[in-house]
Specification:
about 55 residues, mainly alpha, about 0% strand, extended
């Protein structure tokens, strides 16, 4: 199973001494204009491919 986490509001888990600039996602999915133009969902496709082991 692939857990999908989505934040609908700001949530901070760091502390004042945390000097990391950001936390990169485990799976980065680029979203292109071609995806938008064709109405495809690259994130959903990646999720299905990960679940199905493709």
């Amino acid at each position: 199973m692939l857990p999908i986490i989505h934040a609908s509001e700001y949530y901070q888990t760091s502390f004042p001494g945390d000097d990391r600039r950001f936390r990169a996602p485990d799976i980065a999915i680029p979203y292109t204009f071609a995806d938008y133009a064709t109405g495809s969902d690259a994130v959903l496709d990646a999720a299905f491919n990960t679940i199905n082991g493709d």
